[in-house]
Amino acid sequence: MKEIKHFINGEYVSSSKGKTFEDRNPANGELIALVHEGGQEEVDRAVAAARAALEGEWGRMPVERRMALLHKVADGINARFDEFLEAECLDTGKPKSMASHIDIPRGAANFKVFADLVRNVPTESFIMDTPDGAGAINYAVRKPRGVIGVVAPWNLPLLLMTWKVGPALACGNTVVVKPSEETPHTAALLGEVMNDAGVPAGVYNVVHGFGPGSAGEYLTRHPGVNGITFTGETSTGEAIMKAAAGGVRPVSLELGGKNAAIVFADADMNKAIEGTMRSVFANCGQVCLGTERVYVERPIFDEFVQRLKQGAEQLKMGWWQDDDVSFGPLISRTHQDKVLSYYEKARAEGATIVTGGGKPEMPGELSEGNWVQPTIWTGLSDDSVVIREEIFGPCCHIRPFDTEEEAIALANDTPYGLAAALWTENLTRAHRVAAAMDVGLCWVNSWFLRDLRTPFGGSKQSGIGREGGVHGLEFYAELSNVCIKL
Ligand SMILES: NC(=O)c1ccc[n+]([C@@H]2O[C@H](COP(=O)([O-])OP(=O)(O)OC[C@H]3O[C@@H](n4cnc5c(N)ncnc54)[C@H](O)[C@@H]3O)[C@@H](O)[C@H]2O)c1
Ligand SMILES: O=C/C=C/C=C(\O)C(=O)O
C-alpha cells in the first residue's frame, strides 16, 4: 500500500508514533494510500525547520535568485503535469477535464505570478518638512513575516494550497502546510518538486493530519508560527482565529459562502445557462465561489428553469480519466451524508424538485462512491435552511423576482459575502447592481474568471483580508517604515 509521509526539512518522514489514516478514492471508496498523521512532535520539527531556513540560506538569498527558484518550481509542476493530475483526481474524483484546465495549471501559475509581482511592486515613500528646514525622508521596507502556517481544504487542493504558498515564498517567508486530510497527495508531491528545483530544505514543509487534536490545531496554536492563512469553513475559521489570538498572530481567512446569481430578463440566455451550469455544478458543487441561490427575473423564469434542468440532466458522471465525464463524486461519505441531508430537508420543506434530489444508480465499482444527483429546486421560502446554509453540493434553488431592488435585497440576505454572478446585457445595470452586492467578488456575464493580480476574498462571514496581487502582501509581508532625518 502506498504511504504518504510528512515532508520536513527537505525529507519525507514517518510519524514518530507510527500513526496513519486512510486516503480513499471518492469515486469507488477504494483505499489508495495510508497517510502519516502528524502530532505535536512533527509540527514542532516542521516549524523548527522552517525557522532555521529563514535564518539560513533562504533568508539571505538575493531576491532574483529566490524568484528564479519559484519559476523552477512552476516549471517542475508543469514537467510532472500528468502525475499531479492523477494524484489530484484520485484524491478528489474530479474529472480530468476540470483538473487539467483549472487545478494543475493554476498550481504552476501561483508560483510564477507572485514571483513576478513581488519583484515589481514598489513601496511607498514620503518626504516631509521639519522645523529646521532640512526635512526627512520616509520609506517603507517589506520584510518576510516569518514562518507561515498554511491550512488548506480539499475542494481545489493544489490550487488553493499554492495560492498561499506562492506569495508566502515570494515574500521570503517559509511555510508549514497542513493539507486537508481528504487530499494529501499533491502537497506531498510538491516536496519532490521543491527539492528538484533546489529550494533549500525547510522552506516548504508539509505535516499531514486532521484539525482539532491533530496537526491542524497544533500548527495554528504553535508559538513559532508568525501568521496563519486558512481556506475552509467559517466555523473552522473561528477556531483558527481563537488559536491565533495566542501570541497575537495575524490571520488571513477565506471562508464559506452562499453565493447568489441574478439573471435579468435582458441576459443572453445561452451565456447565462452555460455560466450557471458551471457555477452550480462544477467540481460537483464543491467550489466556495459556486452558486447555490439563483434569482431569475419573472418573464424568463420558466424558460431558465427548464434549460438549467436539461443541462443538469446531460451532465455525464463517471471515472475521472474519461474524456467525456463532466461530473465527479463528492469528496467523502460524510460530505455525501451532509448534502443528502439537505436534499431531504428541501423535500420536507415542500420544495418542487425540478431534477435530482437523491443518489444516482452507479454501475459496478462506482456504486461504492460518494455520488449524488445534480439537483435543482424551486418553491422554497426565503427562510428555508436550504437557502440560508452553505451546502457545498451540486444543487441550487431558483426563485423568481420582479424588480432590481428586490433581487439585490434577496442576494444580500445572507450572513455570507463571498461571490455573486450577474447576467445582464445592460451595462448601466451591471455596474449599478455589482456595486450593490455585499460580496468580495462579483462577476458579470462570467464566473470564476480569475486574474491573479486582483483582490480575492470575502466580506461578512466569508472571510478576513484579501489575497491576490499586491493585496496579499499586506499579510505575507511586514511593512516597516524607515524615517531618515536629513
Ligand atoms: N473563501 C474561499 O476562498 C474558499 C475556498 C475553498 C473552500 N472554502 C470553504 O471551505 C469549506 C470546504 O472545505 P473543508 O471542508 O476542507 O473545510 P474545513 O474547514 O473542514 O477544513 C479545512 C482545513 O482545516 C483543517 N481544520 C479543521 N479544523 C481545524 C482546527 N480546529 N484547527 C486547525 N485546522 C483545522 C482541516 O483539517 C482542513 O485541512 C467550505 O465551507 C468552502 O466554502 C472557501
Ligand atoms: O473553492 C474556492 C475557490 C477559490 C479560488 C481561489 O482562491 C482562486 O482562484 O484563487
TrEMBL record:
What's in the keyword line of the UniProt record? NAD, Oxidoreductase
The Swiss-Prot or TrEMBL record annotates one GO molecular function as: oxidoreductase activity, acting on the aldehyde or oxo group of donors, NAD or NADP as acceptor
- Residue numbers annotated as active site: E254
Residue stretches making up the Aldehyde dehydrogenase domain: 13-481
Gene3D superfamilies, per this entry?
Aldehyde Dehydrogenase, Chain A, domain 1, Aldehyde Dehydrogenase, Chain A, domain 2
Q: Does the keyword Oxidoreductase feature in the UniProt annotation?
A: yes
- Family recorded in the similarity comment: Belongs to the aldehyde dehydrogenase family.
In its UniProt entry, what is this protein called? Betaine aldehyde dehydrogenase
What organism, scientifically named, is this protein from? Isoalcanivorax pacificus W11-5
